[in-house]
Design goal:
440 residues; mainly alpha; Hypothetical protein af1432; putative deoxyguanosinetriphosphate triphosphohydrolase fold; 3 domains; 0% strand
């Protein structure tokens, strides 16, 4: 692959109108702005990231997480662009890599359903273990794999590219490069790894991704002809996400008193050698506010990770471009940083992701999603029934519940549910189960 072809301003769905604009905003900055002002992006403010949505203490939701990932992604992209230019690589838009990565970072979680990862699990298991199992004989193997391994990344690509009822061709009409930069797993579900069960696009968007890949010169994997290799900027989007969720979850856990101040400081200070640690300890003595101390250390850690991930990308650029790089940038960190990152990961797994607060919202979310699926899928497949007609009137017309296939009907319900906020999903759950009725 080559940078000249990989960085394209061509817009999905508006290929016939491709032109160079003469104003101060680049096409990739337009992508960023278009995402910021969109309704699906705004709805992420009411979607769980890890911890339950805030009470007296404000912690991260999907929207604040995505904004922070975009900031880190922009820094990574700017660093990489500058370093590639210093290697005398000549290609247009190298200066725009930061803008492309930041836009892709904004979009990377837009396909995730309510209630964090439990929402994804609930959707998948409704069909693989629950009442949805009865639908298997009505779908092809690939269609069945799409829904039994429901994947937020694939759903984000669908949300951004699909022409929903009443909407314009091309979905969000983003540039090819931004769209390709969010696809972490560039292959169909039927070709996913048996253990991970991850994939990048549903059957309905397979041709769309292939069209983008061909335009950008994205090659097939040398190890598997059913897989494309990643667009290089996917590695930067992935690194930005890895940096933010790992480090910010530690800070949130401190705010919620799941981790003590001393434990949190220790986790962050271990990223630095003796000299740098001493300097940071000296700075901490100038600040008496504990939360400000933690914020300072967190920012120092993020800065270090940005620097080292940028370096790892440039050092492995050749392997990334020819498809032989089989790692993440986080896995390429120097030993001290890598060990510190792993220590944070272990602490998060042991003390944060298994905390009562997190488990409670996952359990509740699981039940809510399963109940909504049961009622809404049944309504879409039996629209002639009286109760189904009432339920279907609740679903906006943009969702294609009248699709001629079972797979299409199910996808329309998944589109609707995955776009819900936590609060909307809970409210609808209460209404259809009779737990809540409007005041009379």
């Amino acid at each position: 692959m080559n940078w000249t072809q990989l960085l394209s301003t061509k817009r999905f769905g508006m290929e016939d109108y491709h032109e160079n604009r003469a104003d101060d905003r680049s096409e990739f900055q337009r992508d960023y702005d278009r995402l910021i002002f969109s309704a699906p992006f705004r709805r992420m403010q009411n979607k769980t990231q890890v911890f339950p949505l805030p009470g007296s203490v404000f912690v991260h939701n999907r929207l604040t997480h995505s904004l922070e990932v975009a900031c880190v992604g922009r820094s990574l992209g700017v660093n990489v662009g500058h370093q590639l230019k210093s290697k005398e690589i000549e290609a247009p838009f190298l200066d725009e890599i930061g803008s492309i990565v930041s836009a892709a970072c904004l979009a990377h979680d837009m396909g995730n359903p309510p209630f964090g990862h439990s929402g994804e699990k609930a959707i998948a298991t409704y069909f693989s273990e629950g009442k949805g199992m009865d639908l298997q004989h009505l779908m092809t193997d690939e269609e069945w794999k799409d829904i039994t391994c429901f994947e937020g990344n694939a759903n984000a690509f669908r949300l951004l590219t699909h022409q929903f009822n009443g909407r314009r061709k091309g979905g969000f009409v983003l540039t090819y490069s931004t769209l390709a930069s969010i696809v972490k797993y560039p292959y169909a579900s039927i070709h996913s790894d048996f253990k991970k069960q991850k994939f990048g696009f549903f059957k309905t968007e397979k041709k769309d991704f292939e069209k983008i890949a061909i335009e950008l010169g994205i090659m097939k994997s040398p190890d598997n002809s059913n897989h494309f290799i990643r667009h290089p900027l996917v590695y930067l989007v992935e690194a930005a996400d890895d940096i933010c969720y790992q480090i910010m979850d530690i800070e949130d856990a401190h705010k919620l008193k799941i981790l003590s101040s001393d434990e949190t400081k220790s986790l962050f200070l271990q990223f630095f050698n003796e000299d740098k640690r001493k300097r940071r300890l000296e700075t901490l003595e100038m600040v008496s506010d504990v939360n400000e101390q933690i914020a300072y250390l967190r920012s120092s850690v993020i800065g270090l990770l940005i620097e080292q991930c940028s370096k790892a990308f440039v050092e492995n650029e050749k392997a990334i471009l020819n498809g032989t790089f089989n790692s993440t940038l986080i896995e390429q960190l120097p030993e001290r940083t890598s060990n510190a990152y792993k220590s944070c990961s272990k602490t998060a797994a042991d003390k944060i992701y298994r905390s009562q607060e997190v488990l409670d919202v996952e359990l509740a979310g699981y039940k809510i999603i399963l109940t909504l699926l049961e009622h809404l899928v049944t309504a879409a497949l039996s629209p002639e029934k009286a109760y189904s007609k009432q339920l279907l009137m609740r679903i906006p017309e943009q969702y294609e519940t009248d699709s001629p296939t079972t797979y299409g009907k199910v996808l329309s319900i998944l589109d609707y549910i995955s776009g819900m906020t936590d609060v909307y999903a809970l409210d609808l759950y209460r209404k259809i189960t009779g737990m809540s009725i409007p005041s009379l």
